[in-house]
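Troubleshooting: if your tokenizer reports a length mismatch, compare your output against this known-good record of 332 residues.
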Amino acid sequence: MSKITAAITAVGSYLPDYVLSNKILETMVDTNDEWITTRTGIKERRILKEEGKGTSFLAINAAEDLIRKKGLDPKEIDLVIVSTATPDMKAASTAAYTATQIGAVNAFSYDLEAACSSFLFGMSTAAAYIESGRYKKILLIGADKNSSFINYKDRATCIIFGDGAGAVLFEPNEEGLGLQDEILRSNGEGREFLQATYGGSSYPMTQEAFDQGKHYVFQDGRTVFKNAVFNMADVAERILKRNNLTNKDIAWLVAHQANKRIIDATAQRINLENNKVMMNIERYGNTTSATLPLLLNDYESQLKKGDNLIFAAFGGGFTWGSIYYKWAYNPN
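Known-good structure output:
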């Protein structure tokens, strides 16, 4: 009997309609298009404006896009994982609500939170369930409504983040395709440099904290940038060496879209040409958990069965990692 591996067999996505461009941001904070583009590579980002709609709305729409494209009966889904840093509510699971709303009535579900590494860690988790042989169809969604905790008077953060969701379906594969290897890491000493302090259990929300805007996300940009550049590039290089791969063996780098300079540094570390680097940061900004599946959705038509992909991500916490993956299907 062939060894079971876990492979992506379908992708889907959802982006809100409202486009927050650099030109619009110029009217909101002391910044300009040239400054933002030079330092981040971002031109615009999508924002979910509708009142009362949160991360689950994004996740549901991405899942329904995948279900429609795949012709999938949601009752066949065994597990729904929503990777997110911005759940709808505390205590109530965003994944459970998402699963119910898409008709995945036979699935169990839960949220997975590792900041911008959430989807990457979710890939490892979904693959382990598939490889166990107990589950056949796992829906992994990366979704974040980052605008819900961004201070649009803080130019250090409001220029970076956007809202969006992407979804993938993992199924068993007996051709040796799918997830091949992973290097996943974390270091809790980094959490002070990127987080939203108030509203969690250590610092419950107070009126004073709210009035001072302490529920908004804070980022020490220089420290985060330095750690992201080193760690994303390091694990990407290490996973190539561990699997005896060279840049010629790699079809695509699928890197978290936090900053174009970080992506470029990772590609340079593994000597990968620009035409092998997936990029959509210019249009979406940093969608946190959604960046990797949105890349797969955008580039799906260019992916070929057997292509070697290197995933890399870095997030708050700190969390980071790299996955070596073999694409499992040809475009329609």
